[in-house]
Amino acid sequence: MAAERNQHQISSVLTRIASGFSTFILAVILSTHYHSLGPNISPRDLNSQSFPIVVAKTEIPVGTRIIAEHLTIAQFPRNVAVEGAFHTIDDNLLGRVAAARITPREPITESRLVPVGSAAGFSSVIPQGYRPTTVRVDEVVGASRFIMRGARVDIVVVIERGGDNGRERVAKIVLENIKVVGTGPKNEKEAARVKAVTLQVTAEQAEHLARVSNEGKLRLVMRNSVD
Question: What is the 3-state secondary structure (H, E, C) of the chain?
Fold first, then answer.
């Protein structure tokens, strides 16, 4: 009888050990499974850790009226703050006009759009008191003759005059630190061959440009970005 009791006790101890070991193994498996989700996060909590933000699906040029084909939805972590972002593609966004060039995958924010009700095109991005004025240019000087929208330039007129010693050229700066809001080429590879640009000028500056353009040839001189 004593032998049977000892055998029963040994069997009971072994059963408890096996049960405890199984529980430990299960805990390890569960811990490993959820580790990649972060501490205290279960699979059903994943949707609450991100939220949708509307981003550009394709490049949206400045002055473009936004349509659905320009947009898509991307999931952002909740700890990433995107001020002024849109979370759905609806009438609050569709039809708005881009105030600046928006690149693919860039979030669409209120600061990148012109006020509600603005027309598309240059008129939507020209500040009050300024005019978009297009002029033909003979040459772009500086920065390897590379000019794009948003650049700052000085405008020089080159005038040919006759004299006792033959014809001579006189160059003078007529406007300084003028913003370029448009160029003729459609892509950057053509930018070095610019022959016409649209400038952001005041009404008085536009009149001055019209006068000097009849006197000689206009050239643009690229300015340093920190000037």
Answer: CHHHHHHHHHHHHHHHHHHHHHHHHHHHHHHHHHHCCCCCCCHHHHHHHEEEEEEECCCECCCCECCHHHEEEEEEECCCCCCCECCCCCCCCCCCEECCCECCCCECEHHHECCCCCCCCHHHCCCCCEEEEEEECCEEECHHHCCCCCCEEEEEEEEEEEECCEEEEEEEEEEEEEEEEEECCCCHHHHHHCCEEEEEEEHHHHHHHHHHHCCCEEEEEECCCCC
Question: Does 143 share its domain with 204?
Answer: yes
Query: Where in the sequence is the domain holding 214, given as residue range(s)?
Result: 130-222
Its pTM stands at: 0.50
Same domain, 121 and 138: no
Instruction: Dump pLDDT digits (tens) for 67-84.
Output: 999 999 999 888 887 888
Q: Tell me: the pLDDT tens digits for 198-227?
A: 888 998 999 998 888 888 888 888 887 666
The residue from 94, 125, 156 where one domain ends is 125
